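Project standup — Tuesday

K.O.: blocked on the structure for the chain from last sprint. Re-posting the sequence here as requested.
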Amino acid sequence: MSVFTKVSHTELQDFLKQYPVGELIGFQGIGEGVENTNYFVDTTDGRWVLTLFERLNYADLPFFLGLMDHIASRGLPGAMPARTHAGENLVSLNGKPAAMVRRLVGQSVLFPTLEQCKQVGRSLGELHVATASYPGRCENSRGVAWRENTGRGLLAHVDADTRALIEDELRAQAALDWNTLPQGVIHADLFRDNVLFVDDRLTGLIDFYYACNDSLLYDLAITLNDWCTEPEGAPNAARWNAMVSAYRSRRGITPAESDAWPLVLRAAALRFWLSRLWDWTFPREGDVVHMKDPNAYRRILEHHRTHAPMAL
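H.V.: unblocked you, prediction finished:
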């Protein structure tokens, strides 16, 4: 969530007239994340998050906004998109597709407790059960083909050790048949900054704009890699076990998933290493641009490549 498109006070005032949200009090750009422009917006009717979509187009967005409606209506702690006076949840601002959602209470955590890891695992399992009835479909824009193409696209721009690691991991990943794994709608980006807590109570799952149809196990791997690993890339056993146990209390793991687990963990690490490495190699311009260190995910990938994974 960075600021690539500036919005003035007057522009935002005019934009908000489309919504039954009262008068503008104030707004502030959010400098975290890397994909969209986001602002916190305060009005006389409450607190909101305004998103201008920098890469997604209008045709893609009904899937994400409909999914958020679907999740919130089933009691999960997701933000329901606001609707205009005309009943629309997707409009435009400064030439970009835009949407507003009610700002949820709580804060993200940097150093999660065991209870917070349990709640994330339980909520992820509940999310996978709830999304089974969602009729929308969206291919993973950062899936197998993207990982292959992005990795190949970086080879001419990185050092020899990095090039060898990318090439070897892409060869290893070619052995994984994703079609053997249970599929569904996944969050695909459930990092610590996309979950809100009040103390140890989970109050919000946010930022569904990477959601897609893919392997459910891959979603668990993405989440574990962020929440339950140490800075050197090794798993924190207590947090890892707490999250996995809580997840399994809501959704069981199949034998095919157990067999694929080592490569799925590596694929989840590879995806974020490559995306961060690409952004460092080919930086984007913006008023506030937050780029994350790719080496954190290189260390996770390298650990998974040289150690047997913790069991599911």
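K.O.: great, moving the ticket to review. Residues 9-102 form a domain with the Phosphorylase Kinase; domain 1 fold (CATH 3.30.200.20). The longest helix spans residues 255-281.
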